[in-house]
Design a protein that fits this description.
4 helices
Length: about 160
């Protein structure tokens, strides 16, 4: 039995979904950040006997906010939506978001580690918060090199 495959003749630039982004370093970093922040939210949400309610509410809100933000950035890259909105400087927007996220999640993780009171779910949440802030710092570094690094113009000097 013979099968015939008919293609539409489109190029890879015509595709809506860029599945190759999930195998790039920025894509893998975003996936790692989202997974670490999801674990943070689940740990804080599932913990019993919070020693400091305000500290862990801040930790949970910061983690949830950046989880949603990084999911949006990931989907923007995955579906190539940046090209449809050229009025926004996307590398600079991501650089700003990573810088604020790194700082806030690091502060929240330090506070969570100090105030955990031996509650294992909160300790695990703070560890994953530190992991997430490390991954954000790596993304911040790569975003900085793209946004603020030297850009060859091709013009002869």
């Amino acid at each position: 039995m013979s099968h015939t495959v008919i293609t539409t003749g489109g190029t890879s630039g015509d595709r809506v979904l860029d599945a190759g982004y999930t195998r790039t370093i920025p894509g893998l970093l975003k996936i790692g950040q989202m997974l670490a922040l999801l674990v943070v939210v689940l740990c804080v949400r599932g913990a019993r006997g919070w020693p400091s309610w305000a500290a862990f509410q801040f930790f949970e809100v910061a983690a949830l906010w950046f989880l949603v933000a990084f999911l949006l950035f990931f989907l923007m890259h995955l579906f190539r939506l940046q090209a449809k909105m050229p009025c926004i400087n996307w590398p600079l927007t991501e650089f700003f978001h990573y810088s604020v996220g790194t700082l806030l999640i690091l502060i929240a993780s330090i506070v969570a580690a100090v105030k955990s009171g031996g509650v294992s779910a909160l300790v695990a949440g703070s560890v994953f918060g530190f992991l997430s802030s490390f991954l954000m710092a790596v993304s911040l570094w790569t975003s900085y090199s793209v946004t603020c690094g030297s850009h060859p113009t091709g013009a002869a000097v």
